[in-house]
Structure formats: C-alpha cells, structure tokens
Amino acid sequence: MTNTIFNHRSIRKYKSDPIPEEILERVMEAGSRASTTGNMQVYSMVVTKDEEIRKQLWESHFKQDMVLQAPVHITFCADFNRFNKWCRQRKAEPGYDNFLSFYTASIDALLASQNVALEAEANGLGICYLGTATYMADRIIDILNLPEGVVPVAAIVMGYPDEQPPLTDRLPMRAVVHNEIYQDYSPGDIDEIYAEREGSDLTASLLEENQKETLAQVFTDNRYKKQDNLHFSKQFLEVIRKQGFYNQ
Amino acid sequence: MTNTIFNHRSIRKYKSDPIPEEILERVMEAGSRASTTGNMQVYSMVVTKDEEIRKQLWESHFKQDMVLQAPVHITFCADFNRFNKWCRQRKAEPGYDNFLSFYTASIDALLASQNVALEAEANGLGICYLGTATYMADRIIDILNLPEGVVPVAAIVMGYPDEQPPLTDRLPMRAVVHNEIYQDYSPGDIDEIYAEREGSDLTASLLEENQKETLAQVFTDNRYKKQDNLHFSKQFLEVIRKQGFYNQ
User: Is A175 found in the same domain as A118?
Assistant: First the structure.
C-alpha cells in the first residue's frame, strides 16, 4: 500500500501496450471497494479504449498528447441516474435532483477514482488525472452519451509508463495539516512554507520560461487565470443544472 | 496495496487506544502524496484529538457514537486561503473566488482523504467517512475556525477497530462500469443489477425494521429524504457563497 502511495507520480508518456483484461478488471473492482455514501454507489466509471472515441476525448481535454497515447481512458461520473431508475421501479420517489445530491455523488466518484489510480499503480501501470474533466463536462457528456443525473467529475488516462519522472515536490506537512483547529497563516508562515519551492531549480526555469517575476504569477497570469475560471465555472454550474441537480 | 483496498470496511466501534504519533504522521503524509491540481495543493487537513472539540464535532455530526469513541477526527477541507495569501504576498492577483475553484479544491481534498484512509488501514487502523461533513459545514466552520476560502468537504474518524464487520455488499461490476460510452439501464437491467442486494437477509431485516415494502423506500422515505436534501443543499450552497467561492 504504503509504497504505492508514496511512489505516486503522474505519468505523461505512455507505451502503446494494451492493459491485460484481468488487470483492468481488478483495477476497476478496486474502485468499487471505496467508501460510498449509504452504500448507494452513486457513481459510474466509463472505460474508453476505442481510438476514435479517445480522439474525441483528447480534443475535449485540451489535446494533451498523453490522452492519445494511453490505451485506456476512464471518466468518473457522479451518477444518480441508476439509483433514481431503481427507486421509480420500486414504488419510491427519489428526491436527489439537488446540489447536495450532486456533491454526494461527486464524493463517491472521486473516492472510487483514487482507488482505481492506486490499484493501477500497484500493478505497474501509470496514471494521470485530467483536470479538464470539469472544464469540458458539457462536451464529455455528448461524447460519452451521459443521461440526466450523470455528470463527469474526473478523468484519468492509464497505461504502461514510458517515462520515470522524479517525485513531485510538496509543501512541508505543516502547510497542509492543522492541529486541533485551523491555524491561519501569518505572512511569515507563508514565506516559510513556500521557501523551498520558490528556491528550486524548477521554479527558476518556470520564471524564465514564463517571463514572470514570481512563481505565483505563473499560476494567476498563465496557468489558472481568473477569466478562464469564471468562464468554466459558469459552464460547469450550467451542466449541473442541465443534468438535473438544481432543484432549489 | 491491493489487500488494503479489497479489505476495506467502515469501522463504527473503536478502542480508546491513542494512535502513535509516528503512525499518524505517516498517514497524513500519505494524504499529501495524492494527485493535486497543478501541484497547487488547495486543501487542508484538520486533525482533532482534543476531547472537548471532538465533542462539538460529534454534536454537528448527528451525535454518532463512533465520533466520540475514535481518538482522531480528521476534517478535509477545500482550501484556497493559503494559496490566495501566497499570491497576494507575491504581487499576483488570485482569481479563485468562483465555483470551479471550489470544485477543484474539493477534488484535491477528497483524493487526499482516500490516501489517508488507505494508509491508515494499511497500518492496522480503522476509519469511517462521515457524510454529515457537507450537511453541517456551517457549524464545522465555526468549531474549527475555518477562514474565508476554506470549506469542509469530508470528515473521517480514525482509531483501532473494536469490531470486525463483514465486507459490505456491492452491486455487480457491470452496474458501475460502462464500456466505451455510457450504456443506459433498461428496466430489466435495473432488476438484474439489484436482484442480489434485494434478496439478501440484510434487506429483509431492513424492510422489517423500517416497515417498508421495498428497499428503495428505505432510502427515499427514511435515510435520504427529499426535504432534508433540499434543506442541506441550500445550506451548503450558502456556505460555498459565504466562504468566498461564488463570484459569477
């Protein structure tokens, strides 16, 4: 366990070797063992191998090379469709057309996704999460034919690694762990927490490459811009509404 | 890995034995190795051991016994507060006061939570997720002193198990896995998928106990009711707004 978790790195280059069916089955089953709210299992996992469909997904995921390379693409969805259908067939009136239910289903989907990612890695596979799943939810719904009650919330690509990147640096543990209650950060705390990252060679090359004065500007001005966030925010809320989770 | 994932069961009875500090540290570090969007690490984990504070948390988590019993309580939060403060100290203007950013931070927090849960189990500990974290987010914010930019999205209790429950039944894999694209469910599919669960002894005793005709009614009428969902839905959206994630 332990080694798998501590050895995780996102893989962005893949061999074309297919994943043996029995390994893929075990990986997906690992997803189903994650905690799920009230054992409702309000999530679905769409496993796409077909090259033509993966090409469409690649287009919606900002055309990142790895999406074409990796032989398997998995889309994790918040899914109340199956549960609602079951209720209606069993003389029960479902009341899950609201934001809380969407969020509950999101939690189910995301916990399952992390189990899938870890079990894949424990079997020698590599994975990478695609943050673009929520940005492009509307397009993914079309490609994967997701019905009402289903929203894509995460996606990963999976395959045999064709690179061995170093572990990604992380902030010191005191940055992300709070004892007893939340301890807010003083300006001195922020300086301390980010010191190592800001002083790294990686940061130096990012500043050079992006022509920026600070690493934070690389994020705010180039990578995760306010105008893009607002745009995709509106789109994602609209998707949640359209898929039937906005009864107020 | 593999065994840990496949042996997971939620633990609802705990011994009072404390968790050794070095084990807890390793468990929390496992959380920090999960994938995180753009390595922003926009989450925080609040580890509460203090009995008085845990008692307050117990009250907000619907007074479930296990919350008082388990020696450690961890609240996983979507957190842009630290990142925003860093940006402002580095001449960068953060644009993360929107729903997409909240959701991105939620994903970070939830992936970290699953790593924490699994690493705990790999070390002989038991855990249980508390679905009430989102229902009672407003109260948890008060108890843990969470500032703007921080929203609790999941909580787990952790300790040494004082019970050995059986594995929870799951729907057959074909219920939650779709090949290539989403295959919607026919009435016959729904009957098939739920047949084993509906025919179980557990279901028989739940129907008896709840005085219901179908298992689905136990969910819609007793466990996850429409009126409660709508109530907590409004409250959670209000929390997201109040914590600064609702710039449209």
Answer: no
Size of interface A-B (CB pairs under 8 A): 363
Asked if residue B248 is part of any domain, the answer here is no
**Is B133 in a helix, a strand, or coil?**
helix
CB contact under 8 A, B234 and A248: yes
Cβ <8 Å between A236 and B99: yes
Task: In whole angstroms, give the CA distance from residue A130 to residue A145.
Answer: 19
**Average pLDDT, consecutive stretches of 10 residues, N- to C-terminus, chain A (248 residues):** 89 98 98 98 98 98 96 98 98 98 98 98 98 96 98 98 97 98 98 98 96 98 97 97 93
Based on the domain organization, do A95 and A159 belong to the same domain?
A: yes
Tell me which of A182, A200, A215, A228 to substitute to probe the interface with B (most B C-beta atoms closer than 10 Å).
A182
Q: Domain limits at B22?
A: 2-166+226-242
Distance from CA of B100 to the nearest CA of A (A): 4
B59 is a domain residue: yes
> What is the pTM assigned to this prediction?
0.98
| Total of domains in chain A | 2
Q: Quick check: A44 and B115 CB within 8 A? A: no
Is residue B3 within 8 Å of residue A120, measured between CB atoms?
no
Handedness of CA A76, A113, B173, B220 (dihedral sign): negative
Report CB contact under 8 Å: A107, B182.
no
Contacts of A117 in chain B (CB under 8 A): 35
For B204, residues 6+ apart whose C-beta sits below 8 A from its C-beta are none
Are A73 and A175 part of one and the same domain?
A: no
